[in-house]
């Protein structure tokens, strides 16, 4: 499980972009968005580093708040 903070995720469009970016690199992942807190939980991503890199490369200010192996 991967817990992320996305500093510049401020609207529904941003949340949609975050979800699409994650699913592009991890199609089977479950994505939970907490827009008000600017947090994202990703479950089932085989390569967490790719998820983080994909978000950063598309302009999302991403930091890992906690990473736990499933």
Description:
Residues 1-63 form the HMA domain. This protein has 70 residues and is of the alpha+beta class. It has one domain: 2-Layer Sandwich (Alpha-Beta Plaits), CATH 3.30.70.100. The protein is built from two helices and four strands, in the order E-H-E-E-H-E. It has a four-stranded antiparallel beta sheet, covered by helices on one side. Helix 1 (12-25) crosses helix 2. The longest helix is centred in the first third of the chain and has 14 residues, at 12-25. The mean pLDDT is 93.
Q: Which shape, going by the Cα principal axes?
A: globular
- What is the CATH topology classification name? Alpha-Beta Plaits
CATH C-level class: Alpha Beta
The number of helices is 2
Give the fraction of residues assigned to helices: 25-40%
Radius of gyration computed on alpha carbons:
10 Å
Helix/strand/pairing class, anyone?
alpha+beta
Low-confidence stretches: none
> From N to C, what is the helix and strand string?
EHEEHE
Strand order of the largest sheet: 2-3-1-4
Mean pLDDT, to the nearest integer, reads 93
The main β sheet shows up as: 4 strands, antiparallel
Tell me which CATH architecture applies here: 2-Layer Sandwich
Number of domains: 1
How many E strands? 4
Which band does the percent of strand residues land in? 25-35%
The termini sit apart by 6 Å
Keywords: Metal-binding
GO molecular function, one term: metal ion binding
Organism: Enterovirga aerilata
Protein name: Heavy-metal-associated domain-containing protein
């Amino acid at each position: 499980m991967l817990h992320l903070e996305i500093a510049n995720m401020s609207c529904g469009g941003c949340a949609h972009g975050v979800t699409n970016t994650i699913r592009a690199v991890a199609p089977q992942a479950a994505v939970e968005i907490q827009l008000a807190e600017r947090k994202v939980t990703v479950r089932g991503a085989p390569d967490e580093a790719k998820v983080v890199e994909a978000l950063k490369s598309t302009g999302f200010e991403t930091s890992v708040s906690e990473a736990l192996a499933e």
